[in-house]
Amino acid sequence: MEKQITGALPNELQGKLDALKTIIRELGSLAVGFSGGVDSSLLVAVAHEVLGDRAIAVTGVDASVPEREVEEAKQFCAQRGIRHFLCPVDPLKEEGYRHNGPDRCYFCKHGIFTEVKRIAEENGIAYMAEGSNTDDLGDYRPGLRAVAELAVKSPLREAGLSKADIRLISKYLGLPTWSKPAYACLASRFVYGEEITEEKLRMIDRAEQFLIEHGFFEERVRIHGNIARIEVPPKDISRLASEEIREAVYRELKDLGFLFVTLDLRGYRTGSMNATLKKPE
């Protein structure tokens, strides 16, 4: 486990952490939609501290979630004695998800939290929660519509926690996820309008795993038809473009089925596919 920060949290962060605990305590019991990422890890850890076995973690498992993420989620809960449920889902059954319009995340979130609700009810859990933070309000997040429709709580946002706050508090609490790179499901790698298939999801998963194995821990492989567009932080572009690694990545992605393999010169950034959406005037 990551070593805790010595000393006390700054007053503002301690106040937010106390507010989060109060929010959770007042709910009484909670089923957390748990991806294993930075945000939901803090939420489920604090929920377990406050509620004990009246807090459970539920992880959706489908082709858009890499196996490594599921394994990390399992390990996180097992090490802390958190009751953890794996929930097989198949968003590809939903036409709205499969056709990959701008509201794709709505269908995915709705399906996952419908299952979370079922598991919560079977275990006598009164409320559901998800891990969005205050920064998520500044981006296009159609999944939050499903969250609202299904009455899913957002305790981190309610407590006023930003992504930076969450990382600092996670480090203070000794959570190994405090420095984990941001992650989004593999469906976010598709350009809007391109049909999502299990085969393409597997291609992306294997391509990104190959990059991770070569030391690129913040990366995305975006898919545009038969083109792979690789994003890594600007500081890593020169290393990826070096002869040996460039050739290895090209061969691997060609073998996976991509016809063209490109490197985005702007570098890695979250939500880059949203650049194609027309902003309201």
List the helices and strands and how they pair.
Layout: H1 11-27, E1 30-33, H2 38-51, E2 55-61, H3 67-80, E3 83-88, H4 95-98, H5 104-122, E4 127-129, H6 143-149, H7 155-158, H8 163-172, H9 198-213, E5 220-224, E6 227-231, H10 234-240, H11 243-256, E7 260-263
Parallel strand pairs: 1-2, 1-4, 2-3, 6-7
Antiparallel strand pairs: 5-6
Helix pairs in contact: 1-2, 2-8, 5-6, 9-11
User: In whole angstroms, how far apart are the ends?
Assistant: 48 Å
Low-pLDDT sequence parts: none
What pattern of helices and strands is seen along the backbone? Answer: HEHEHEHHEHHHHEEHHE
What overall form do the CA principal axes indicate? globular
Helix content: 40-55%
Give the strand line-up of the largest sheet. 3-2-1-4
Average pLDDT, rounded to a whole number, is 93
The radius of gyration computed from the alpha-carbon positions, rounded to a whole number of angstroms, is: 19 Å
Q: Care to describe what's here?
A:
The chain has 281 residues and is an alpha/beta fold. It has two domains: 11-179, HUPs (Rossmann fold, 3-Layer(aba) Sandwich); 186-276, Alpha-Beta Plaits. 45% of the residues lie in helices and 12% in strands. The chain has eleven helices and seven strands. The strands form two sheets. A four-stranded parallel beta sheet has the order 3-2-1-4, sandwiched between helices. Strands 5-6-7 form a three-stranded mixed beta sheet, covered by helices on one side. Helix 3 (67-80) links the parallel strand 2 (55-61) and strand 3 (83-88). Helix 1 packs across helix 2, helix 2 (38-51) crosses helix 8 (163-172) and helix 9 (198-213) packs antiparallel against helix 11.
